[in-house]
TrEMBL record:
<dbReference type="InterPro" id="IPR000515">
    <property type="entry name" value="MetI-like"/>
</dbReference>
<keyword id="KW-1133">Transmembrane helix</keyword>
<feature type="domain" description="ABC transmembrane type-1">
    <location>
        <begin position="69"/>
        <end position="283"/>
    </location>
</feature>
<feature type="transmembrane region" description="Helical">
    <location>
        <begin position="106"/>
        <end position="127"/>
    </location>
</feature>
<feature type="transmembrane region" description="Helical">
    <location>
        <begin position="64"/>
        <end position="94"/>
    </location>
</feature>
<comment type="similarity">
    <text>Belongs to the binding-protein-dependent transport system permease family.</text>
</comment>
<keyword id="KW-0472">Membrane</keyword>
<protein>
    <recommendedName>
        <fullName>ABC transmembrane type-1 domain-containing protein</fullName>
    </recommendedName>
</protein>
<feature type="transmembrane region" description="Helical">
    <location>
        <begin position="260"/>
        <end position="282"/>
    </location>
</feature>
<dbReference type="InterPro" id="IPR035906">
    <property type="entry name" value="MetI-like_sf"/>
</dbReference>
<keyword id="KW-0813">Transport</keyword>
<feature type="transmembrane region" description="Helical">
    <location>
        <begin position="12"/>
        <end position="34"/>
    </location>
</feature>
<dbReference type="Pfam" id="PF00528">
    <property type="entry name" value="BPD_transp_1"/>
</dbReference>
<keyword id="KW-1003">Cell membrane</keyword>
<keyword id="KW-0812">Transmembrane</keyword>
Length: 294
């Protein structure tokens, strides 16, 4: 009898540590975040009154929020698109190499090993108007010096360039793993039928890689939404609000000025946006899988 009870409770005992960790580090913080988003919450206040939807009303009436939402959308779209295109190109090239593939792969992956704060500081020096290496080479080719990080037109592209440099290898390694897992038979059949390299890529590689592509886009999109440390090291949300993303105004308003309730409301909105995007991409993956089965 005891052995039967132990056998039945065994799976629950095995899962218990994971469930406890999930409660401590995921569910409880989310419930606490949701709770304080309806409060005028500050760690220095003895009483944190309930204000209902006031934080959300103030949020949606704020021009700073809508500007941050637009900047975040532009940043996420540009970085993920460029990283996908460049990463896919590098993955295809590396997949076709027969000599020195691992050496080139190791060199390309170096940016991922660097902390975002280090990358941000490095690019901040490189883009300095007076002694930055980018302006040095610009002058060599006859161009004038540019204030990359303080110019209203170049600050956001400079952040995009920095993020693309660091995270394109991440996209590349996922897509390269997918390419290496593709079967050779469809390509051999296409070669016999006289298909060109582009036709094989368009009608064989892309369809077979669709699920991997969606997963790579999903992972990078989620991560791009969270950008903060690079902005802190390079622009601090400026000039004006040209590089103020949602995650930056969470820090600037919620932490810097100790308005945790307002910052929590922004985090909840960000969570809704990211979950909606994840749901959309996962549905695309499921539709593709169903299409393959039929």
């Amino acid at each position: 009898m005891k052995s039967l009870k132990l056998q039945r409770s065994g799976p629950y005992l095995v899962m218990a540590p994971g469930i406890i960790l999930l409660l401590l580090f995921a569910i409880y913080p989310f419930v606490f975040l949701l709770k304080i988003s309806f409060q005028e919450y500050s760690p220095i206040n003895a009483v944190n009154p309930f204000v209902g939807w006031d934080n959300y009303k103030e949020l949606f009436q704020s021009k700073i929020f809508w500007n941050a939402l637009w900047v975040t959308a532009v940043f996420v779209f540009c970085t993920v698109f460029l990283e996908f295109v460049i990463g896919f190109g590098l993955a295809v090239i590396l997949n076709r190499l027969t000599v020195g593939q691992r050496i080139y792969q190791s060199i390309i992956l170096l940016p991922i090993a660097m902390a975002p704060t280090v990358v941000g500081l490095m690019f901040r020096f490189m883009m300095n108007e007076q002694y930055g290496v980018l302006n040095y080479f610009a002058e060599m080719f006859g161009f004038s010096r540019t204030a990359w990080l303080s110019d209203l037109n170049y600050a956001l592209p400079a952040l995009v360039l920095t993020d693309v440099w660091q995270w394109t290898p991440f996209m590349m390694i996922i897509l390269l793993a997918g390419l290496k897992g593709l079967p050779d038979e469809p390509y051999e059949a296409a070669l016999i039928d006289g298909a060109s390299s582009w036709q094989s890529f368009r009608y064989i590689t892309i369809p077979q890689m669709s699920r991997i592509i969606y997963i790579a886009l999903l992972l990078r999109t989620i991560d791009a939404f969270r950008i903060y440390d690079t902005i802190y090291m390079m622009t601090k949300g400026g000039p004006l609000t040209k590089t103020s993303t949602l995650s930056w105004i969470v820090y600037d308003r919620g932490i810097k000025f100790l308005d945790f309730g307002y910052g929590a409301a922004i985090c909840v909105v960000m969570l809704i946006l990211v979950v909606s995007l994840i749901t959309f991409i996962l549905k695309k993956i499921d539709l593709f899988e169903v299409g393959n089965r039929t």
